[in-house]
Amino acid sequence: MVSTQVPVIDLGPWRSGDAGARARTAARVDEALRAAGFLLVTGHGVDPALPARIREEAAAFFRLPARTKEPYAVTVGGRGWLGPGAEANSYAEGTASPPDLKESWSWAAEDPTGIPSVDQEWFRPNAWPAEVPALRPLVTEYLSRMRTLSDELLELLATALGLAEDHFTRHTSHPTWGFNVNWYPGTEVVGPPLPGQFRIGAHTDFGTVTVLDRQLGTGGLQIHTDAEGWQDAPYDPAALTVNIGDLMARWTGDRWRAGRHRVLPPPADAPAEELISLVYFYECDPHTRVESLPAPVGRVVHDPVDSHTYLRAKLDAISVTEPQGTATPG
């Protein structure tokens, strides 16, 4: 059932300029985001060799001894290494759980706006691991492609709602974003899962759209829908997985649902399974006022929120440790 609710959307017809093809694509997107909040997107133009090379370099860092990684340690929202126990995503839903079974390297927006209070909180310099210098040019290229793709997706989403194509992108002239490379090692690294412990606990993302490049695994991504509960997410090796976050759901007045998901713990029948995901979280310009679209597009009228007050509260909720050190640029 989940696979029928999470269609594969080829961006080729959307980019063709043909009005009929664009309208059909937009209608499929609207239907899918009402049901599950997820899409699989092909025709995105990202060479699969690029994420593969990022995985190779990132894996080399993650496999280093903890003492080598500790000087880069940060808490959630920082730029650097999120080590074991750094976050528990289920707290974003108000559900207590053991920490997530993963490590991450986290980047975020860094080009300053010129407004000191905004830059200090949201546009600080990124850190890079000196031990894997080849990672920087690869990630820099990938981030450029993700920014372009995310804005294109926001234009598609606006059209799916019958709005002006720039309805959302007029709020992404200087947006914040986050990018995590998540390492999900096997039980030989993380130990046996505790009761209620996942590689990532159940949650919805916080921003507008998330673009995920993932690997297929037994202990992989699951999606929750009202119709079928938790089911393994459909997978297409040529596709990127896209879901909408809380801010977009609020913006649409809950016409679209934020895609609820989790990542299963290392499976008992494959305890050494290792996966690496590349997760790009797109947001909007700092302190955008997010107001629910009225009926008939919207379904629920939420109180307006300041986008980045909302984001900060969510990031604080999932952070469960103090930093082990201070990340330094590599």
Walk me through what this model shows.
This protein has helices at 2-5, 11-15, 19-35, 49-62, 66-69, 116-122, 135-160, 187-190, 246-251, 307-318; strands spanning 8-10, 38-42, 80-82, 103-108, 177-184, 200-203, 209-213, 221-225, 229-232, 240-244, 261-263, 275-282, 289-290, 305-306. Helix 4 crosses helix 7 (135-160). Residues 322-330 have low confidence and may be disordered. The protein is of the alpha+beta class. It contains ten helices and 14 strands.
Brief descriptors of the model:
330 residues; alpha+beta; four-stranded antiparallel beta sheet; 10 helices; disordered C terminus
Ordered list of secondary-structure elements with their pairings:
Blueprint: H1 2-5, E1 8-10, H2 11-15, H3 19-35, E2 38-42, H4 49-62, H5 66-69, E3 80-82, E4 103-108, H6 116-122, H7 135-160, E5 177-184, H8 187-190, E6 200-203, E7 209-213, E8 221-225, E9 229-232, E10 240-244, H9 246-251, E11 261-263, E12 275-282, E13 289-290, E14 305-306, H10 307-318
Parallel strand pairs: 1-2
Antiparallel strand pairs: 2-10, 3-4, 4-5, 5-12, 6-11, 7-10, 7-12, 8-9, 8-11, 13-14
Helix pairs in contact: 3-7, 4-7
Instruction: Pick out the low-confidence regions.
Output: 322-330
* SS-based class: alpha+beta
Mean of the pLDDT scores?
Answer: 93
Strand order in the sheet with the most strands: 1-2-10-7-12-5-4-3
Helix percent band? 25-40%
Can you count the beta strands?
14
Largest sheet: 8 strands, mixed
Gyration radius, rounded? 19 Å
Strand content: 15-25%
How many helical stretches? 10
Strand and helix order:
HEHHEHHEEHHEHEEEEEHEEEEH
Shape: globular
Terminal Cα span: 46 Å
